[in-house]
Fold this sequence. Notes:
By secondary structure, the chain is an all-alpha fold. The chain contains 5 helices and no strands.
Amino acid sequence: MEILEWIRLIVGGALLLCGLIIFLIELYGVFHLKYVLNRMHAAAMGDTLGISFSLVGLMVFSGLNFTTLKMMLIVIFLWFASPVSSHLLARLEVVTNENLENHCQNYAELAELEKELNREKEDEQTGGQEA
């Protein structure tokens, strides 16, 4: 039985250590990335993954009881809530930022593709009316 306790200690400690490492990588990304969307992506992914690893490590330490169930529900809630809130904040940034094309290289390509698509639609509409 003592071997199982050691295995539980090692697995729980490894999961907590992984969560701590993910938090450190997240901090690096938040403070060293230049654009707000990049920072927010690092923060959202790091929070979700780091908290999940940490809570799973604590669940291993706790064993099978009611506290473990509560921590599992917290992990499930965070896996749903964090990406949704990050997406809403990113959408707000995209809608309100007037200088988005300066920060995103794909923004100009997307604008060109939209113009081309609109031209094709107009050509189809005018072609159908002339015939």
